[in-house]
Amino acid sequence: xxxxxxxxxxxxxxxxREVGDTVVTSINLAVKDNFKKDTTHFIRVExxxxxxxxxxxxxxxxxxxxVEGSLKVDKFKDKEGNNREVTKVNASRIEFLDSKGxxxxxxxxxSNSYTNAYGGNKQASQAPDENPFANSKGPVDISDDSLPx
Length: 149
Prior knowledge:
CATH superfamily: Nucleic acid-binding proteins
Helix content: under 10%
Radius of gyration: 18 Å
Shape: globular
Number of helices: 1
Distance between the termini: 28 Å
Order of helices and strands: EEEEHEEEE
Largest sheet: 5 strands, mixed, barrel
Number of strands: 8
Low-confidence stretches: 104-111, 113-130
């Protein structure tokens, strides 16, 4: 089984790139070492498609996220002809872990959003004290067209 789960802070700016018919982003995730308290590992994470779009939309450098994915090793030759390997995590799910008032978005909103490997996504985003259903006493009538998933 190839499963990797990490929690850390985004250590690089997030840039979305087009690759064929889809988009991709690559970030470095700063992950603290549990055994060596003064050590931080910078792990390359790659997100594709809707996961990459949501990451770009809701996160920035410094945002705390949880990543679930698989290890991937890319092999290539550098400019001098030497064989090289780069190990990275191919993200299948990303969860936003910042709390209210943190740097998760520029307007002070909190969001928890993720996309899984099966194409399903869940998204919830709102500014503090703007929950239209906070005082609701019963079921809320929402059409399927209004749902983000």
